[in-house]
Fold:
Amino acid sequence: MALPLHTSTLERVWHYTYLTICALIFLFLILPILIVIPLSFNAEPYFTFTEKMLKFDPTGYSTRWYDLLLTFGMNEPDAPRDSSWWADAWNNAAWINATKNSVIIGFFSTVIATSLGTIAALGLSRPEMPGRRIIMAILISPMIVPIIITATGLFFFYSAIKIQDWGIPYLGVILAHATLGIPFVIITVTATLVGFDHSLTKAAANMGASPTRTFFKVQMPLILPGVISGALFAFVTSFDEVVVVLFVGGLDEQTIPRQMWNGIREQISPAILSVATILVIISIALLTVVELLRRRSEKLRGMSPG
Amino acid sequence: MLTTVGGKPLKEALAHAQSRAKRRAFLLVLPLLAFIVVSFIFPIGQMLYKSVSNTGFTISKDFGTGVSTPIMTNLAEWFEENPQGTDPDETAYAALAADLLVLRELKAPGQAGTRINYELSGSRSMFTKAARKAKKLAPPFKESIIDLDEDWADPSLWQAMRTASSAVTVNFYLAALDRKRADDGSVEMVPENRQVYVTLFKRTLILSLMITVICFFLAFPIAHLMATLPMRKSNLLMILVLLPFWTSLLVRTTSWMIVLQSQGVLNDAMVATGILADENRIQMMYNQTGTVIAMTHILLPFMVLPLYSVMSMINPSYVRAARSMGATSWTAFRRIYFPQTVPGIGAGALLVFILSVGYYITPALVGGADGQLISNLIAFHMTKSLNWSLAAALAAILLGAVLLLYWLYDRLIGIDNLKLG
Structure:
């Protein structure tokens, strides 16, 4: 931001103070997240920078906590690392099992949330939709209602209908996470449908396309970026959710956040930091994807010059 | 009159087509609405019902067979026949003795005692003890029961049993507001040293308000900066705001634990640079400070995003016009720019406030004893003290507050305007 020539000294001083303040606020936002990355390579079991780390001494750094992540919970962590060792890790390592559970739960809840949410968003963005406001308020409410209330309600509900005895693993948690992900899908998909030119669908119908064909050939390509970012939001919501899992998940339904929660509450080990680092890297990747999708969507809808 | 090809009046045909379009739009929404009602609205409704109904003193359920048996029936009958304030006489004690026998057979003295214990702590063991000796009780029952434990003559106990003898009660709401029933059935405050909940509600509101205000002061400058910078640069800065938004909540909370610990990064840095002596390390975690700092960081993006979207729509020529007419930059900001940002401030502040009122995870991990919020107490009653009806009553009050704010948000800003990045 270049300053015009006529600015007074006081204004100049203020301008640079203002920029400094902004820089500090951005640091406040970003530093606490990035700080876990170097600390996860700490060779010592401390949560702070050791002297060796500050001097960039290679012996101050190690990947032992990442190794611990892999071996924790294994039957024979010290055996030679051949194929049976890896099989042991795949089947028994606590964090690997947690990852598997998280991915399964995240996948199915995302599928439910995205498919139901997208269809509903299509209906909601039609101008003739009756009771739009109240229905929208109901559909967004899972995002607003405190998570502890949702978890409490689901705890009573699931124990009343005995969902654990239905024989479908993870069912309760999947349905709950789908509910929590739905508001995000609704918000992102309706946002891409704002300003959607309905004459396009009318034109398609006019030229003899069936409603299904119109949807897949005309509407779908236009809203796809919104649908994908909604799905990513839903997945991240599930992937990060711990309270509902704690309340309604079975004992064997350990997910990554639950494992982290236990780790933080009981005895916090630097292994948590290596999990955190991996999650930060995943979120950077997801953010990039969403940002690219948003740009593509704006370009598709002609909202920005590209 | 205009008609369609089929001979129908045009107006009628149009109305028909419109209602069909309405139905079709609604049908698209219906599956999701049904899903949300079953998996979200109904469970919460069921929980709310639990807050006004507790069957601990009226029905015993055998979980093996699933059979429900009414308990304490004789006593309930006596309470019905004798109005509030009647001193329990021999027939009352006889009814109690008969009910204790039933409790013993059903192995249910624990649940009945627990229900009374919610109203009058310390009374659970009286029930288990009395039920164990129920067979030996002989008339006159009044003497023999009071012989077991003289607290059985306590009018507070009889008041508690009277209210518990019907499943439907508002007592849990009274308890959630630090009130209780006096011996004569009127409502009074609990003794000062046991008043927890109102203090906690107040603390939740104050901390949430504090977090909202801090978020505002941090979000305003950077939202303004992003709104005035050219697109390419502001997009880059936006990534810095969105990254925390996309990062796991537990990761962010862990990071703050690392930074704020007394042996943590911040204290170490201050000691190393000599700002702080080693023995004066500041306790920034496991107290309110920790909760406020971590929650501010977590909720800040929710303030920045609406502010930014409002600010980027503000036409810069208004401020320029004010400056050219002789306003100082401060006046131009105060009278021209700031009023135009108010919708964004309202949206961000309400959102941050709504989200922080019900926050659970961060206070639970970094809050320590005095940084806990109302959600943590609900979790405590759900998982530790197992007083589910009280947990439900507290949840209902919190839910009421949140829904009120949500309604306000919809009125003022509109839910359609909620944006995520």
User: Anything to note?
Assistant: Chain B has a mean pLDDT of 87. Chain B touches chain A through 89 residues (CB under 8 Å).
